[in-house]
Amino acid sequence: METVQLMRMANEVRKGALTAVYSAKSGHPGGSLSAAEIDTYLFFEEMNIDPENPDKPDRDRFVLSKGHTTPAYYATLANRGFFPVEDLKTFRKVGSYLQGHPDKKNTPGVDMSSGSLGQGISVATGMALSAKLSREDYRVYTLVGDGELQEGQVWEAAMLAAHRKLDNLVVIVDNNNLQIDGTIEEVCSPYPIDKKFEAFNFHVITIDGHNFTEIESAFLEARKTKGKPTVIIAKTIKGKGVSFMENKAGWHGTAPNDEQYKLAMEELERAGEALCQKL
């Protein structure tokens, strides 16, 4: 896809994520909106996947370690063709296969039931190690929150991944600098994130997580990196794309009301129309 097409798709992911949270009257919009470009690039450009055969053995694996940001994850999967976009309106409803955290058993395209922070990256490390032991070529990607880096299990996984030279593992840190109680610096600072991963012998790349040119370059660099895992530290804006949500910790886990949803969707519609004119 061309860059403008990717930008348009990220905008659609944001619309789908907000629709899911609004329909459920609960969920996590802030961190979903900050991850829209990363999710879009992974599922539309980077990963070897097939919506018609979601369990094919040689597929690349993705683990949403920050498992509460399913609104963007589901919106990405839906737009990629794993299930109908209309089903996003069933998010968190009783009987829906689109629950608040990923459910591998019931949701097409989901490789791990995640949600307990720190565990996703641990399982992703295990998946990457399994590929190495089985001499299989698939790659493993995991999206981690910057607040999630406060979990000790993250660093246990990082230590093992580097020790086993898992160059088929790519960790993406959604570094939007906010968690539910405020900035990550105020709550329990994980900074400097890059130096910490360097100390664990990761190949470190820092990018603007909303810039598709930088995102593409980072994933290409990760593929060329041999003998160690890669971490991509994506500098992002919580609530990106909706002006009144941007950089507001209060939108970590708050659903928009009727008026707020209308304003947000109008803003995203205008952004989408502007991108259409660039095609």
TrEMBL record:
Q: Does the keyword Metal-binding apply?
A: yes
Question: Which GO terms label this protein's molecular function in UniProt?
Answer: metal ion binding; transferase activity
> Which keywords describe this protein according to UniProt?
Metal-binding, Thiamine pyrophosphate, Transferase
Statement: the UniProt record of this protein carries the keyword RNA-binding: no
> Which InterPro entries does this one have?
THDP-binding, Transketolase_CS, Transketolase_N
Q: Which cofactor does it need?
A: thiamine diphosphate
Q: Give the matching Pfam families.
A: Transketolase_N
Classification via PROSITE patterns? TRANSKETOLASE_1 (PS00801)
The record places domain Transketolase N-terminal at 8-264
PANTHER family per the UniProt record, alphabetical: TRANSKETOLASE N-TERMINAL SECTION-RELATED (PTHR47514)
Family assignment? Belongs to the transketolase family.
- This protein's name: Transketolase
Classification from the root reads: Bacteria, Bacillati, Bacillota, Clostridia, Lachnospirales
